[in-house]
Design goal:
Blueprint: H1 12-34, H2 40-59, H3 62-80, H4 86-122
Helix pairs in contact: 1-2
């Protein structure tokens, strides 16, 4: 199993990039609401441009590169998963339903038996 050692160096430039991304994100939302009188196309355009700029600045930061690397590693792991066939999925679902029915019957029988023991035999409330 290959492990990669991650070393995080928080430089001033990296912190500035993250701060700029947050400012761009907030600016995009502020522009969206301030441009409400200019029309929907201008409003949504400002929002999308601001969000795109915020994402671009975030991606070039160290945190953004780590997030992209994590996404790539996750996708690589998902490709390794052996997914069940349709027949196997239906078969396992049927097993689960059968188990639920058996457990429901068992709990119902247990409940009725305890009810009979306590109310009829011990307390004598039902005759």
């Amino acid at each position: 199993m290959a492990t990669s050692e991650v070393q995080t160096v928080n430089t001033g430039a990296d912190k500035a990039k993250l701060a700029a991304a947050v400012v761009l994100l907030l600016g995009a939302f502020v522009a969206f609401y301030l441009l409400s009188g200019k029309g929907a196309l201008v409003q949504w355009g400002a929002l999308l441009v601001g969000l795109g700029a915020a994402v671009a600045v975030f991606i070039v930061s160290e945190s953004g590169r780590q997030l992209v690397a994590f996404g790539r590693d996750s996708w690589r792991e998902v490709k390794k998963v052996v997914w069940p066939t349709r027949r196997e999925s239906i078969q396992m679902t049927a097993y689960v339903f059968a188990f639920v029915v058996v457990m429901a019957l068992f709990l119902w029988l247990t409940d009725k038996t305890l009810e009979w023991v306590f109310y009829d035999l011990v307390l004598g409330w039902r005759n």
